[in-house]
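User: Hi! I'm working on a homework problem where we have to compare a predicted structure to a textbook description. Could you give me the structure for the chain below?
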Amino acid sequence: MKQFETFALDTANECLWHEGAQIALASKPFSVLRYLVENPGRLITHDELLDALWPETYVQPQVLRTYVLELRKILNDDAKEPRFIHTIPKRGYSFIATVRETSGPIANAGTTSTDTPTTELVGRDDEILRLQTIALQAASGHRQVVFITGEAGIGKTSLVDAFRRASSETCMSRGHCVEGLSEREPYYAVLEALSHCYTSSDHHKKPAAGTARLSTFQDRPAELCEALEELAREKLFILAIEDIQWAHQSTLELISALARRSTPARLLVIATYRPLHHSTRLSLKSIKQDLVVRQLCTELALEPLTRAAIRSLLASRLQQEDLPPELDSFIHQRSGGNPLFANALLDHMIGERSIALKETKWHQITPISNLEITVPQELARLIELEIDRLSPQEQRLLEAGSLMNIAFPVWAAAAALKESSDTIEELCEDLEHRTGLVRRAGHDDLPNGMRSDFYSFAHQFYREVLYQRQTTARRAKGHIRIAEQLKSLFAGREATVASEIAMHCEAAGDWLGTISALRNGALHSRQRHAYQHSTQLLNHALRVTENLSEPERDTLANEIAAELQAIRDITSPSRSHQQKAS
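Assistant: Happy to help. Predicted structure tokens:
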């Protein structure tokens, strides 16, 4: 057991402990962490790490970054101020914490800690019960295949981990599909899972040929099916394959074949994937759909957590039932019910001391109404990785859409990019079907009689990351183009969309354009006797004049002040009394 701070790495059982509690850690992230921990205090280059973990196999260095991001999340390690993994730019990593040998996992000292998210699963009782029921059917000799689907961070892996803990008497072996690698390697994740079976001292029933047979399975898929069925001959065997959106075609065909074979087997295959991920090929969708139609598989689609479940998650993390006021509501709304996002938000709020521990209890330091939480750094990096997988044209489209809000009309993105609406419509439709990063949310009836579809981002965090990754100059150019298109679409009626025009002009730093639009809108509201709205627009315009230089600032400020006074004269009680008397 290798101990560092409050963590212990159990190399014998290949797991990580934190204060007496076991933390679920997939095979490859565990291997990365183990190599770093076993080589503390020195530079470990990217090449050394790749050669050690993937000998004689080409793997993109980007895979390492993904695993290190996952480890930082688990260890609650800040890349800017690391306690454990120090990144040496363009060279590699160094494990900087003190490592010492210990005889067992660190016991919980009884202190409240939020260093790592709890392994307890919340809000998935129905799914756990469903898996247990399916496992009983498989244990009776009726093989089963289950697809667990949902967006990134929704808790697919956590559900499998919780099911494994609840089914401790069964044998489960797990393999992981790795982006850029398993797509080229037949049966990559399945062979990884089988290798654990062959080397496990706990599993006394091994295929006769042992480890040496693994290399032959790639050319003999029928034997691979037989090997898995041999493992499931006498007792329930669970094969879990994660992220099959990155699986080689052979792995998908193997799952289909295992579901269709008629011989009895105490076999349960669990496959997780993101159904709208851009790498999810048509073959995966068609294979799963065919199995669903033939009633040869079950799909568990994970939905976002409810507010009650988020409250339970926070109570578990903070180890107190009496939560700070409105914390559960704020995090549920901001995270969209995504458990990964919710945990990241809580970590961020603790790091920023928006909530703090006082006398063994967590208290609200910053009122919820005053909170302006940006996208947590680790989440932003994960989202960046997702965006970077898209083509440059698709990235520019999403960036243009972010200039509006969480929802954007096709015409606005087209205007920002100076593209035709038809081209942008096709791109949006393709992105929706292939990635799930945007979803069609309705349509907009334009003054020229045309309709323009609306699309919304899968989450507000995606919109914020896409907006911030653009340069100030590029954002300004896009905002101005959208403002000009609004004027063109509503020619002669610009006052009806004055607030929208002003918003884009202000975002672009076009102060005169902002003031002009606000005054135009104020005049329109005044003519409709909407004096309160007119006053709000003029006060906004008055604040914007502070960005101008003299004498232009003073001139416009005086004109706006006169317009405000005119409204006050109209709405004053004495004026109203005079009008009634006359």
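For your comparison, note the following. The chain has a mean pLDDT of 85. The chain is about 50% helix and 15% strand. Good luck with the assignment!
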